[in-house]
Design brief:
The complex is a heterodimer of chains A (about 110) and B (about 120).
Chain A: E1 9-12, E2 18-23, E3 34-39, E4 46-49, E5 63-68, E6 71-76, E7 85-93, E8 98-101, E9 105-109
Parallel strand pairs in A: 1-9
Antiparallel strand pairs in A: 2-6, 3-4, 3-7, 5-6, 7-8, 7-9
Chain B: E1 3-6, E2 10-12, E3 18-25, E4 34-40, E5 46-53, E6 58-61, E7 69-74, E8 79-84, E9 93-100, E10 106-109, E11 113-117
Parallel strand pairs in B: 2-11
Antiparallel strand pairs in B: 1-3, 3-8, 4-5, 4-9, 5-6, 7-8, 9-10, 9-11
The chains are: A mainly beta (about 110), B mainly beta (about 120).
Chain lengths: ~110, ~120
Amino acid sequence: QSVLTQPPSVSATPGQKVTISCSGDNSNIGNNYVSWYQHLPGAVPKLLIYENDKRPSGIPVRFSASKSGTSATLAITELQTGDEGDFYCGTWDSSLRVVLFGGGTKLTVV
Amino acid sequence: QVQLVQSGAEVKLPGSSVKVSCTASGGGPFSGHTIAWVRQAPGQGLEWMGRVIPVVGVTDYAQKFQDRVTITADSSTRTAFMEVSGLTFEDTAVYYCAKVGPFYTLSDWGQGTMVIVSS
């Protein structure tokens, strides 16, 4: 079902910046808002970014995102070991009439 | 903010059915919420199953689940339900309910319910 493409994994060292891409098409990202979710080990998925670039209250400014055309990007600065986990983009698909998620990106901070 | 509490883990035989509940507290009238169900199979990503909009009594499903999944809601108990019939080993997963906000943002999540299909 996933037609949003994310890199399977990214890694960086503490304090560095990492970006995670999410690619779709005009049925989904191109014409709908993108959200990003953080899924830490043993925890529940958590909303990180909504409406392309907005942070819910309590989400640090280290997390930011943008959208351009049919792609979106999540950026995390000042990486911490506690950021390790899986990150998913999500958006409505107007053709399939479902919320699509990317395949997920595993972040490793070493 | 809405708090969502799901029912406990289940172990089911192939071919049987499972019904998972999701009870909401806070966040105003339940009938005004849209509740979605998302699952995550072992080692896999998140997968949208469908949603219920209690205020208008509407449900819709991802095509993959159209024939085997039923999502309902009871506003009097502030509870949504998701039932999967004809279980197969591939239905082994953690099932989450989530509140759907504006522009299909999943703003609040239940704690997840592990369903294991095993003979």
